[in-house]
C-alpha cells in the first residue's frame, strides 16, 4: 500500500516485479498534510500560526501536492491495475508530524486537523466508488468520526456532495482495527460491507484483542502483518490468534480467512 502521492509509483513497480503483490494506492492520514485542498495553499493555511518546534518542522516539509493532482495519479494507477485496492487511507487523531533530524524530540507538536483528514478521505472513497474498488482504512483514536463516516458512505444520500453512497457490494476494511468489541458488533450489524482486520504487531497491545476477534463476523474478518518486514510470519501470528479464539486449528482458520479476502478483494457482496 502506498502512503501518499510520492510513493504510489513505487507500489506499482513492486507489483510489476512480483505479480503476487496486490497493489493499493492511497493517501495515508500521516501524509494527508502534504496534500492541499486548493492550489497554492500553504502549510500555514493548514496549521495556522506555528511557533517554536512547529515552525522548524514546517520549514523541512515537502512542497504540497494539490488534491486534484494526487487523485488523478491515484485514479490513473487504479485504472492501470484492475486488481488494485484503494489504500491506505483513513483518520488518525494521535499522529504528530515527525520533528526534523537533529531535533531533541522525535515528534513535533503539529497534528493534521481532522477536518482536513476527512476531506482527503472522502475524496478517495469517492474514487473507490467511481472505480468499484474496495478500501483499506486506518482509524486511530477516531472511532466516532469513523462510525459517522461509515454511516455517511453507505447512506442513500450522504450530507457531503463529494461522497455519494457506495454501491452495496463495495467493501471497506478497518485494518488493525482498534474499535471496541461492541463497536465492531454495531458497525458490522449495521453495514454488511464492513470488514475488520487484526495484526499482532498492533492489536496484541490491546487487552481486548480476543474479545474483538470474537465480536467480529467470521465471514468479515481478515488477518494481516501491518509491518514492513517478515510479512508471512506476522500474518501467521495473527491467523494463529484468530484460530485460538475460534477454537479451530490454524489451517482451518487460514482457509476461512483466505476465502474472506477473496470476497473482499473481488468486491463480492456477502
Automatic annotation (TrEMBL):
InterPro entries: Metal_Hydrolase, Metallo-hydrolase/TatD-type, TatD-like. Gene3D superfamilies: Metal-dependent hydrolases. This is Cut9-interacting protein scn1. Coiled coil: none annotated. One of its GO terms (molecular function) is hydrolase activity, acting on ester bonds. Pfam families: TatD_DNase. Transmembrane segments: none annotated.
Amino acid at each position: 500500500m502506498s502512503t501518499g502521492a510520492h510513493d504510489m509509483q513505487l507500489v506499482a513497480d513492486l507489483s510489476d516485479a512480483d505479480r503476487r503483490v496486490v497493489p493499493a494506492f492511497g493517501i495515508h492520514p500521516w501524509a494527508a498534510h502534504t496534500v492541499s485542498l486548493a492550489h497554492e495553499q500553504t502549510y500555514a493555511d493548514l496549521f495556522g500560526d506555528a511557533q517554536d518546534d512547529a515552525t522548524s518542522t514546517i520549514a523541512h516539509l515537502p512542497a504540497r501536492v494539490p488534491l486534484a493532482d494526487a487523485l488523478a495519479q491515484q485514479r490513473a494507477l487504479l485504472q492501470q491495475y484492475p486488481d488494485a485496492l484503494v489504500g491506505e487511507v483513513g483518520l488518525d487523531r494521535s499522529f504528530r508530524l515527525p520533528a526534523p533530524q537533529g531535533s531533541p524530540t522525535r515528534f513535533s507538536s503539529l497534528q493534521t486537523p481532522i477536518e482536513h483528514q476527512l476531506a482527503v478521505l472522502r475524496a478517495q472513497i469517492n474514487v473507490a466508488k467511481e472505480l468499484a474498488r474496495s478500501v483499506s482504512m486506518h482509524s486511530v483514536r477516531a472511532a466516532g468520526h469513523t462510525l459517522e463516516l461509515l454511516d455517511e458512505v453507505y447512506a442513500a444520500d450522504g450530507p457531503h456532495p463529494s461522497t455519494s453512497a457506495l454501491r452495496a457490494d463495495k467493501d471497506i476494511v478497518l485494518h488493525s482495527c482498534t474499535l471496541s468489541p461492541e463497536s465492531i458488533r454495531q458497525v458490522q450489524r449495521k453495514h454488511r460491507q464492513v470488514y475488520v482486520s487484526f495484526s499482532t504487531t498492533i492489536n496484541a497491545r490491546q487487552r481486548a484483542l480476543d474479545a474483538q476477534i470474537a465480536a467480529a463476523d467470521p465471514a468479515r474478518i481478515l488477518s494481516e502483518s501491518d509491518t514492513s518486514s517478515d510479512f508471512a510470519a506476522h500474518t501467521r501470528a495473527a491467523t494463529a490468534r484468530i484460530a485460538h479464539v475460534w477454537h479451530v486449528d490454524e489451517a482451518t482458520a487460514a482457509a476461512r480467512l483466505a476465502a474472506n479476502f477473496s470476497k473482499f478483494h473481488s468486491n463480492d457482496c456477502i
